[in-house]
Amino acid sequence: RRTMIRLWGNYFRIIIVLISFLCLVSVCSNYIIINFTFICMKDDFSQTTDVNGTLKSIYDYTPTEKKYILWAVAFGTMLGTFPINVLYVRYGARIPFFSAGVLSALTTGLTPWAAGQKMGIFVALRFLQGVAYSADFAAIGIVISKWAPLNETAIFIATLTSFTSIASIITNGVSGVICDSSLGWKWSFYLHAAACLTVFIIWVLIYRDDPTFHKSVSVKELGKIQKNKSEAHIKDGMEVPYKAIFTSPVVLTVWLCAFTELSTLIMIATYAPIYFRSVLKFDIKIIGFYLGIMTAIHIPFRFVCAFLSDKMKFISELAKIHIFNTLAVGFVGLSFLVFG
Question: GO molecular-function annotation terms (predicted)?
């Protein structure tokens, strides 16, 4: 069975990482799309309300209301992270991540409706969107652990962790065009929801948690994936040493690096559209272009670091982590300073 000729040869893991990446991007796009559409929503007077004798769009939210709408996703992400990780450990990534994708698609598709309802309904929907988003990070770990050969781990990580930047490029670009067209801002949510459902259906059809039992993986590729891996990499149901993880200075430092990078990217994705529009008075389409450059300019450099980390054999793994992780994350900070 494993000796049959395949279109993808001995590289089915590339298909897995690409569809996984698209799923990550889609869930993240659904999370950040409203940051851009806030600009368009306040100009939609299809439904209005009277405020002190002045007609105002019901979608023109106050700063306090926007705060609740944005924070609801953050709370959903925080509260959903641990339960979803437990599901991943117990059942693998295939069904839990698919379920999160369906939840993300549904909440995104319902957002235009919820935006016209009471604030409590809208906030609750955004909270569920945050729960779905919390599935992204654990999915990265599972896919890398199960499908990445040890000598390709860095490039897998660079690819999958670029989802925030790529999501910002796609979402801001697409939303800018749609908002400025006859379709209107609501169709940005509908199209994102449809795309999300599509990529997750593909995911659940082709993804398996164990490449050993996947008929599309050749013997040669399986050997490459599992070469020099420990039992913890290969076996399912291993006990997770949560206490050791939470008290490890190394893990805490890695988390701090990830936190600073992600929080900066999310802050820019959240507030830059409003700043560019309200303060700098940029055109909507130009805003999407600038945001795309800001959030993605570091990606080529990150892939160069990942490639060098995987291929260089004359320095230790520890030294490579020190050098290339510092360069990859540090360049993000430098790029934001330049744009500032």
Answer: transmembrane transporter activity
